[in-house]
Amino acid sequence: MALDGLKLSESAVQYAVAIATKQKAYLVGVFLDDITYHSYKIYELTTAEGVSESKRARLEEGDKEKRTQAVTHFNEACEKAGISYSIHHDRNIALQELLHESIYADLLIIENGETLTHYAENPPTRFVRELLEGVQCPVLVVPHQYKAIENVSILYDGEPSSVFATRMFSYIFGDAGIKETEVVTVTKSKHSSHVPDNRLMKEFMKRHLPYARYTMLKGDPEMEILNHLRTYYNNTLIVLGAYRRGMVSRWFRPSMADLLMTEVKMPLFIAHNK
Fold it and tell me: Which three-class secondary structure string do you get for the chain?
């Protein structure tokens, strides 16, 4: 999981610890201690005599203390849950470090509002969007408030990317602890009411997530998916593929993931084959 020690995401910690506990997984807390990133703004250092080095030292010490407290909080959460874990301190450019870490990860967890700057942004932030375009493993993008995951909604359009995302989800999560799994497909009103590649997809799901049910919607994909998801409580996880620009997907283009991060307060499991 990716963590900003200066603005620790409590929800990311809760999601990561809950998942690691349920899956008996090993959790790595990646603290992105980018040396170019501080909690203070440059103008706070300015005095009538110029830049105050003594003030800089005090603010740097404050940042160091915040980061120490964040690590302590993460340690305590993992120890209380009884999970195996370790901590990485990545002190170079945050995005580059995290992309490198993702090569060796099975899943990366990050809050949708993470910026790694002292500025706040609405989700999806620039940092999260750039991460999703270059990441080397599936990502769980979580909302600001934690809700235990009980249901799963898989967005499926018949493209390889959506099948890949479903496969990766089943490998990592299975259906342990999930009350209900559904496969959501949107078609135009004149099209068939069957899911794309109906026989193959249902055989695939029988092997991976055998208890899934199928929901067919008709109309504009973005509008229908949003309306459908808004009928759920926030304890539903959404699975989708093909975040990167240029992927050949009918509706899981970047705007779909961006739209979901903006409009629904649910965790998103995003995986794209390259």
Answer: CEECCCCCCHHHHHHHHHHHHHHCCCEEEEEECCCCCCCCCHHHHEECCEECHHHHHHHHHHHHHHHHHHHHHHHHHHHHHCCCEEEEEECCCHHHHHHHHHCCCCCEEEECCCCCCCCCCCCCCHHHHHHHHHCCCCEEEECCCCCCCCEEEEECCCCHHHHHHHHHHHHHHCCCCCCEEEEEEEECCCCCCCCCCHHHHHHHHHHHCCCCEEEEEECCHHHHHHHHHCCCCCCEEEEEECCCCCCCCCCCCHHHHHHHHHHCCCCEEEECCC
Asked whether the bond before 124 is cis by omega within 30 degrees of 0, the reply is: yes
160 contacts: CB under 8 Å, gap ≥ 6? 273
pLDDT 10s digits, 9-58: 999 999 999 999 999 999 999 999 988 887 766 656 666 566 566 676 77
> How many CB atoms within 10 Å of residue 30?
22
Q: Where do the domains of the chain lie, and which CATH numbers do they carry? A: 2-142 (3.40.50.620), 151-271 (3.40.50.620)
